[in-house]
Amino acid sequence: MINVSIQFTESGQPKYMQLFDYLKKLIAEGQLKTGEKLPAIRSFAEMLGVNNVTVINAYKQLENNKYITAKKGSGYYVSGSKLHEEELFSSSDIGISDKTSIINFASATPHPSIFPIESFKECINEVIERDKGFAFGYQDSKGFKPLRKSLLTYLNNKYSIKMENEDNIQIVSGSQQGIDLIGKVLINSGDYVITENPTYDGAIAVFKSRGARVVRVNLEQDGIDLIDLEKKIRICKPKLIYVMTSFQNPTTISYSTNKLKDLLALARKYNTYIVEDDSMSDLCYENKRLETLKALDTKNEYVLYLKSFSKILMPGLRVGCMVIPDLLISDFTKIKHASDISSSGLIQRSLERYFETGKWDEHQNYMREIYKGKYEFMLSRLEKLSSYGIKYNKPNGGLYFWIRVPKYMSAREIYDECKAKGLLLIPSSIFYDINNENRDNYIRLSFASSDIEQIREGMTILEKCLAENQKCTK
Prior knowledge:
Helices cover 44% and strands 14% of the residues. With 474 residues, it is of the alpha/beta class. Strands 4-11-10-9-8-5-6-7 form an 8-stranded mixed sheet, sandwiched between helices. Strands 12-15-14 form a 3-stranded antiparallel sheet. Helix 1 crosses helix 3, helix 8 (175-186) packs across helix 13 (329-340) and helix 10 runs parallel beside helix 11 (257-270). GO terms for molecular function: DNA binding; DNA-binding transcription factor activity; pyridoxal phosphate binding; transaminase activity. InterPro entries: Aminotransferase_I/II_large, HTH_trans_reg/aminotransferase, PyrdxlP-dep_Trfase, PyrdxlP-dep_Trfase_major, PyrdxlP-dep_Trfase_small, Tscrpt_reg_HTH_GntR, WH-like_DNA-bd_sf, WH_DNA-bd_sf.
């Protein structure tokens, strides 16, 4: 019998999820070894003082997430440790590095040297002078009302998202909290969620933490495969579909207008919510306006639109917004209040001034030009690496390049070799599920955190690693 010292809490998280998290940690830390048999359900339940269903559901979650394997007539056994080592590997973990000697092609956040410190400080000072102590109090859980009004105007003018009621705007403490709130409002254990394949690993982590069963649908050049999507909607009856329609993470694909219309038609046909996660549409380097799915949802019925400001502004501000269908407003207000009461009052009030004084538009244009220059320089360096057999698209926007490596190369090995030489990038295993045939075929490069000289040096390191791998095959 394994040594278990779990203490169940009254945190609101079901006991089976607490047990799932605890056993997952034991596996990740190696305290439960590969091939080790887990206790029988009845005896384990008696030992923990819970009913059998709690243990059954915890084991099901572990099995769904590939941590354990069921052997008919024998019981449950810990799966191979290498798979779980990769699962615990996340894009956020890779992207965070405080070593100045490291060149970071993993992070998608702007470098602190280009943060709009002075202009945002002016707004903070103005708010403190105007509002005094009220700037530091709790806000309405929906968010500071003048900010929500400013965002209504901004979303209408910029994306043709037409809302008349500021109550449809929910301020969140960063887009990750937005995804978490969506999970808490819409998902119960055992529900199905459909995502693009590959997709953002942070969203997958949230959905799985709610006990969801994640079903993936491959992407085509203009968005999600609608034929396969409809088939899976019929079978799974998902609670929601999660998509990124502009410069998708990690593939950089943007949806065509026809695909957006057909996707919304499927949501209407099967009465299913779609979560549109948008952090990149502001970063189009062509003279064209990208359409959003939310703009087509004119009756505000099916699309939950999530907007992040971190890629343009400063990630540490932890502020974003959601546009919520009328039927869900009350649920989101309650869950937001239960999560953290409200997002920072000072930051919300300062951001409202940032929008109203025109500083947001000015800074957005400034950042777009900076990112465009980095994009074009990295693209020019990638073109010189084509002789090594790499393949990639030219997204003309966003912050990434999605690179397919030759069949004889391993994305994970390239990651390890580049890291040893001082370059961070992200291997595709982060974004695919464990059994996907493409999980070792791609690398994602971001130019957000690096200056031109760092991009030059980083691409030189990547070329050396590609050359060494090519040489080993000859």
